[in-house]
Amino acid sequence: MKALDQLKETMRRDRVFDFMARSGTHPVHAGKIDTSHGPILYVENINVSFDGFKALNDLTLYIDDGELRCIIGPNGAGKTTMMDVITGKTRPDSGTAYFGQTMDLIRMTEYEIASSGIGRKFQKPTIFPEHTVFENLELAMNMDKGVWASLQFRLTGEQKTRIEEVMQTINLLQQRNTAAGLLSHGQKQWLEIGMLLTQSPRLLLVDEPVAGMTHQEIEHTAELLTSLAGQHSVVVVEHDMDFIRSIAKKVTVLHEGHVLAEGDMDTIQNDPRVIEVYLGE
C-alpha cells in the first residue's frame, strides 16, 4: 500500500510539474500535446456536487498516452460526470484536470476542449440520418467552420483520402453512399466514432458503445476500439462485462464518485470490494 501511495504521489501533476505555467492559454494543436511524462490526461482531486449529492468525491485518475482504459461502476458511481468534467460540460467545485502537462481543461470552453483533441461519443449516436456515410464524415471534418466557409468548403485530396481511411477503419466502406438513417444500430455507433476520428483526436471518450448491439456487432466494436489504441488514447465506459473482458488491459472501478479499485481484469474480478458493490449485483 505504501508503494502504491508513493507511485500516486510521484504521478501527481502538482508535485512533478510545478515549474510549468498554469495560466489558461489558448488550446494548441493536438499534435503538440506534451505527454513526455507518460499520461495524456490528469484528473486530480475533482469534486462535483449537485444539490448536496456528491457526484465526484476527490476523484483522481491518470490516463497514459495511447492507452485503452475501461471504466466500470454501478449506476451513480460518477462515470458520466467524470466525462462531463473532462469535456467542459460540468465545472468542478474543486480539483484540476489537465490534457497533457500544460492544457488546463477547467479553464477551457467545451469548444476549445474539443478542438484541442478530445472527442466524446455519447451512448445515443448523434449522426445526420438523411446524409450518406461519406457526407456525415465530411460534415464532421468541416464542423468547426462558419456558415460562409462551409458553403464554400471543398474537400482536398488529402481529406478525401482521410475519409476513405476512416470508412475502412469503421468497416463502412461499402455503405459510403447509404443514408445514415438506414444503417443498423451498431453501424450508426461506428459512424459516430468515425466522425470523431476524422478530426484526429488524441483522446476518445466512448460511452456504452455496445448497448443494443448484436453479438457480431459487439465483436467488431471490440476489434475497432482495440485497433485505435496506440495512435489514440481511448477511455471506454461500459456495463457489459463480457465486452470489457474482451478488450480490457487496465480497468478502473468507480464507486460513489471516487476510484474504488484499479488494475487488470483478473485483479478487478477478484477484489472483494468490487464484488460487493458491483460485480455481485
Structure notes:
The chain is of the alpha/beta class and 281 residues long. It is built from twelve helices and ten strands. The protein has helices spanning 2-11, 13-16, 79-86, 110-116, 133-141, 147-152, 157-169, 185-197, 215-228, 241-247, 265-269, 272-279; strands spanning 39-50, 53-64, 68-72, 94-99, 103-104, 118-121, 203-207, 233-237, 250-255, 258-263. The model is unreliable at 12-31 (pLDDT under 50).
Work out the strand percent: 15-25%
Number of helices: 12
Describe the main β-sheet briefly: 6 strands, mixed
Oligomer: single chain
Count every beta strand, where a strand is a DSSP E run of 2 or more residues: 10
Query: Approximately how much helix is present in the residues?
Result: 25-40%
- Taken in chain order, the helices and strands follow as HHEEEHEEHEHHHHEHEHEEHH
Which blocks of ≥5 consecutive residues have pLDDT under 50? Answer: 12-31
Structural class: alpha/beta
Mass-distribution shape: globular
> Separation of termini?
27 Å
Neighbour order of strands in the largest sheet: 6-7-8-3-9-10
Quote the average pLDDT.
86
Over all CA atoms, what is the radius of gyration?
19 Å
